[in-house]
Amino acid sequence: MDVVEYRPERDQYVWTFGGVAPSHRITPGTLLRLWTEDAFSGRLTRVTDRPGDVLDMTEVNPQTGPFYVEGAEPGDTLALHIVDLTPARDWGASSTIPFFGALSTTDRTALLHDPLPERTWIYQLDRAAGTVLFEATSADVRLELPCNPMLGTVGVAPAGREVRSSLVPDMFGGNMDTPEMKPGVTCYLQVNVEGALFSVGDGHYRQGEGESCGTAVEGAMDVTLLVELIKGAPAPLWPRIESDTHYVVVGSSRPLEDAWRASQVGMIGWLGELYGLDRLDAYQLLTQISESPLANVVDTNYSAVTKVPKALLPAGRAYNGMHTHLREQAATL
Amino acid sequence: MDVVEYRPERDQYVWTFGGVAPSHRITPGTLLRLWTEDAFSGRLTRVTDRPGDVLDMTEVNPQTGPFYVEGAEPGDTLALHIVDLTPARDWGASSTIPFFGALSTTDRTALLHDPLPERTWIYQLDRAAGTVLFEATSADVRLELPCNPMLGTVGVAPAGREVRSSLVPDMFGGNMDTPEMKPGVTCYLQVNVEGALFSVGDGHYRQGEGESCGTAVEGAMDVTLLVELIKGAPAPLWPRIESDTHYVVVGSSRPLEDAWRASQVGMIGWLGELYGLDRLDAYQLLTQISESPLANVVDTNYSAVTKVPKALLPAGRAYNGMHTHLREQAATL
Amino acid sequence: MDVVEYRPERDQYVWTFGGVAPSHRITPGTLLRLWTEDAFSGRLTRVTDRPGDVLDMTEVNPQTGPFYVEGAEPGDTLALHIVDLTPARDWGASSTIPFFGALSTTDRTALLHDPLPERTWIYQLDRAAGTVLFEATSADVRLELPCNPMLGTVGVAPAGREVRSSLVPDMFGGNMDTPEMKPGVTCYLQVNVEGALFSVGDGHYRQGEGESCGTAVEGAMDVTLLVELIKGAPAPLWPRIESDTHYVVVGSSRPLEDAWRASQVGMIGWLGELYGLDRLDAYQLLTQISESPLANVVDTNYSAVTKVPKALLPAGRAYNGMHTHLREQAATL
Amino acid sequence: MDVVEYRPERDQYVWTFGGVAPSHRITPGTLLRLWTEDAFSGRLTRVTDRPGDVLDMTEVNPQTGPFYVEGAEPGDTLALHIVDLTPARDWGASSTIPFFGALSTTDRTALLHDPLPERTWIYQLDRAAGTVLFEATSADVRLELPCNPMLGTVGVAPAGREVRSSLVPDMFGGNMDTPEMKPGVTCYLQVNVEGALFSVGDGHYRQGEGESCGTAVEGAMDVTLLVELIKGAPAPLWPRIESDTHYVVVGSSRPLEDAWRASQVGMIGWLGELYGLDRLDAYQLLTQISESPLANVVDTNYSAVTKVPKALLPAGRAYNGMHTHLREQAATL
C-alpha cells in the first residue's frame, strides 16, 4: 500500500476547490496521513481574540491538497474512506463572526441590523475523557461535551471550469459541514476533472446539526484517509456517504428546502440503484424511513442530509462492496 | 383524577383549530382516552384506492376535540402529556396525492408539470413484532419497519381571531408532523384563547423525518393524554416538547430556513430560561449540541425541529418539573 | 343602481377575512361608497408616536365590511371594480415597527438581533398638487411624491373553513399590498363561501414595490366600488386584476419565488383561457412579455405580481368583457 | 479615444468570469466595438432544433473578453457605459430546456417529475419596425413584440480566487439577465482583481421580467461600450446601474427574497451616499419609491432589481457625474 504523509506549510495552504496545481499525484489505493489546519488558519487562539481583528476572511478553511488521482476521469466516482480523525491540538475554538451565521443578518440575508457582538470560546480537549469543555461567560455553566471529530470540508474540483472557495458546498462536496463526515465512513464524489483534485480541511472536534453560529469547535486535525477510484458506476451527482449503518446523501443549495430536495432525490436514485425500486416506491419508502438531520444553514449554500438506516433495508452492495472493502483495509492498519 | 373518554362520530369530526365549539369542558389534571380517525378520514383502505377518487380534500386530518380547559387564559401554557398511542387498526395507509408532497409541484411551488402518478400503499401491522410492512409494487421488496406511533397534529386555537385548517402547522402547533410527538413526551403550547381549545389527530404508525411524499403510515389511533395547565410561566411562543432525554422546539414557516431559525431562536430562549445563559452563550452552546431533524417539508408551513439532549446539559427543571410530574402520574395508570 | 354607503364606527371594524357576520347584504350591480380607516386604526398621528407604545397589533388593518353578495356561491367569481379612491385625511403615516419589515428580523426570519429603532414619518397631503411630502429627519431632504391612492387589502372569506387575519394575503386576496389595486381596475376573486363575504381596507396614499419597511403611506380612504358577480367562468384560483392596459395575477406565498411562480402559472392559465395557447406557448410568450413588479415582501405571505400589457396582445374579452362594462358604468357616475 | 474592435472566433469564446487570460489590455476611456454570440453558441437555429440534441451545456453564454483594464485594482469601481446594442442577426431563438426554467423542476428545485417538453421558437426581426415576431404553435397567434436589445451577462472576475460559470450572477455581476442592462445605461461593478477582467455576452433582443422559461429572445449582438475606471469611491458591493432616469441595484442570491434584500440594502447604501440619509430615512424613502421588477428567477442565483426614479429625488451626482460624462462622450460618436 502506498502511503503519503503531508503536513502543508502555511504557504502551501489552498483556499479553493479547483484552480490550483496538485500537491501530490497518487494512485488509487493510497493511504494518506495528513494534517489540516483549523478553519481560522490558526489565528483564533484566546477568548480575547476578535475575528474582526485577527481573521483574514479570504484565508479561512485552508485545504490540505489537492491530490491528483492517477486515472481519474470525469464521470468516475472517487471513494474517500476516513480511517481516522484525531485532534492535532489540545483545544478548539469557536466564535461569532460579524455578518455570518444562521441567526445573523449576512451579505445574503441582508438586513439593516448592526452585527451581533463578537465573542470567542476556547474549548479545552480532555483526550482521556474524550471531551471538549464548553465554558459560558454569562453564567456559571461548564459542560463536558463528547469530542466527535469530523471534517467540515471534503471536495473535488468542480465541473464547468469553475473554481470555488473552500467556504462553499455544492455538488463537488466542499464545505458541507455535516457531522456525518466522521471516522469510519466512505464518501463518494463524482469526478469532474482529470485527476479529481480532491482536498480536505476544516476539522471540527464537535458540531451540532445546522452549525448555527457558523463555527463548530474548530481544530487542527490529523487525518488518515484511504483513496479509491470507481469506474463504470453511475455518477452520484450529489455527494454520498456510506457508513456501517447508513446510506447518506448531502444536498447543498438555497433555500433550505431545495438543499433537502436535492438530497432526497439523490437518495431515491440510490435506492433505485440498490434495490430496483421505481421512483414512486423509493419515494414512499423514503417517506417512512428518512432521517433528515441538517448539516449547515450558514454557508454560501446550505447543506441538508438524507440518511437511511441499513438495518431497515435488504442487504445491499453499494459500489460493489467498496465500503466493506475499505473498512477491511483500514482494519489492517 | 377525572377521566374523559371520547370517540367522535363522523359528524363530530373537526377540521380546524379554532372556530368550533368545544366537544368537552375539562379541568386541568384530566386524563383523556381518545380515538382519532386517520388523516384520510378512513377513506383510503386498499392499494387500488386513488386519493383523487375517494378523498375530499376539505375533510382530511379530522381532529378529536376541541377540549376547553377550565381556567386557561391567553398567556398561560398548556401541557399535554402523551401517555400512550396505540394503533386502533391493524393496517395503515399512505399515498401520493396529486400536487402534494415535497418532491412534487404544488399549488405553492407552482410549476407546469403534470401531477405525479397516484399510488397507494397499505401497511399491515404486526402487533406482536411491533412492525408495519412496506410492500413495493415495482420490485420484490417487502420490509418490516418498526411501528413508532406518533401524532401528526396537536394544537390549540390560534391567536389573532384566526381559524386554521388542520393541515396547517404554526405557532399554535397543529399539523407539525414531527416524530417527536410520541408516547412519553410532554408538549407545551401557548394558550391564545380562553379555554385553550386544543385538539389532536392525524395518527402515524410510522414517519420518516420530512414526511417526503406528504403522507406517513396513516392510521386511526387510541390516544391517552394527561392535561395540565401552567400559570405564570413565560409563554413559549413556538411549541415545545420535553421528553425524558431531550428538550425540543418546533418552528413552522417557509422557506425551510425560517422554520428552523424560529425553532433555534425558541431553543435559545429556552436555554436562557433554564440556565441563565445570555443569547450569545446559548447560541454558541446550541451550535455545538443542536440536533436538527426535519419534521415535514410538505405542509402549508414546513416544520423544523431543534432538539438538545438533556444528557449534555446541567439538570434543569422546565416548568417547575412538570414533565417529571406527568411521567409519574402516567406511571400510576 | 343600488347604492350603499357605509362608514364603520370603531366597534364595527373587522379584523379577519371570514368568521364574522356581514355588515350588509348587497345584490350584484351595487355601488358601494365606503370609508376605510388606516392600517394603524388611526393610532399613529405624530412623528413622536412610537408604534410599540400606541399600536395594538391585534387591531391593525381594520376592514370595512364584510359584504354578503346575494347569489354568490363557491366557484363563482366576484368582480370588484375600483371606481375611485380619495384620501379621507390630509396626511398619511408610516413607521418602522419592531420585528416587522423586509429588512428586519421578524418572528419568521428569526434572528438574534435587537429590533431596529422605531421612527414615524407623517406625510402631508397636497390635494391640489396631488402629492405627499416625505420629510427626512437625518438630512435636509424634503420630497414631494405623487399621491397614488391604492388599497392594500381586498379579499373574500377563505376556503376550507379558515378565518385569516387582515394582515395575511393568500388565494382569497387579503393583504396583497400591491400598487396595482388602484382606481380604474377590476379585481376578480374566487368565491369560496356563500355570499363571498368580501371586505376592503388598508388604504395607501402611496407605496413602493415591495413595501420594504412594512408600512406604506397609510391613510384613511374614501372608496367607491362597483360589485358584480360572474357565473360559469373558470375559478381564477389566485386573485386577478384587469386594468385598461394590463392583465395582472397576484400570487402570495413564501419563499418569494413560490409567490411569483403562483402568479406566473396563474397568468399562463389566463393566457390559455383568453387566446387558446397551450401551456408551453403561454410560458414562452410570458417569458418575453412578463412585467414582474413585487407587491410586498413583508406580510405573513409575500405577494408577487405578474402583469402582461394588453398592447402587446390580441384583443381579448376576459370574463365576457366585464371590465369594459364596469368602466362604462363607472363613467356614468 | 482608443477604439478596440473584437469579434471572437469560436475558439476564443470564454465560459467563465475569472480564470482566463485577457483577450485585450485596454486603458480607461477606451471605446469597445464588440460582437457577442448568442447564449446557445449559435447552435439553435430552427424550430425543429431540440436543445437536448444540439446544445453542449458546458458551452453556453459565451463571453466576449475578458478585458484587462490598465490601472484597475481591487476596491476600484469599473464603469461600463452601454453606448449601443444592435442585433447582429435577423432572428433570435428561445427554447424550453429540460430541467431548466422557473416553472420546471431543476437540479436544485429537485422534484420527481419528468422534464417539460422541449420546444423551440424562432423570432424573426423586423429592423424597420423594431419588432420581433412571436409565433405560437398551439394556436393561431402571431405577435409583433418591440425589440428591446439588452445584455444578459456583464461581469468582472469574482473575488476570493473564484472562477464562476457565465451562467451565474452574483456580486461580480455576471448572468444577471435584467432588462435594465440596455443602451444608454452605465453599469458600476466593484473591481476584485487587478485589471478587473470584465466580459460581456448573452444578448437578448427582448426579455420579460423574470425570464420565466430561462431563455429570452437570444441573439448575437453588436455591442458598443465605453469603459471608465473610478478610483476612491466606496466599492458598490452589488452591481449598480445608472440610467438617465433611474438608479438601479441588482442583488443575486436564493431564495428570491434574499436577492431582493441585497438589492434593497444596496440601494439604501447608495441613497445614503447620494443624499446623506441615514439608514432609517433611506429605508422609509425606499419603501415609498422603490420599483422592484424581477430580473431572472431561473439562474444559479436569482436576480432581483431595486430601482428608484431620479425624477422623485433631489439632483444627485453619482460617482462625480460619471454617467453624464459618459452620455456626453457617447453622443459625440
Q: Can you tell me about this structure?
A:
Four copies of one chain form a homotetramer. With 333 residues, chain A is mainly beta. Chain A has a single domain, classed as Jelly Rolls, CATH 2.60.120.580. The first copy, chain A, contains four helices and 22 strands. In chain A, β8 and β9 form a beta hairpin. The longest helix of chain A has 20 residues. Chain A is globular and about 55 Å long. The model of chain A has no long low-confidence stretch (mean pLDDT 97). Chains A and B meet through β10, α2, α3 and β22 of A and β10, α2, α3 and β22 of B.
Key terms:
Acetamidase/formamidase family protein (chains A, B, C, D), seven-stranded mixed sheet, mainly beta, Jelly Rolls, nine-stranded mixed sheet, homotetramer, 333 residues
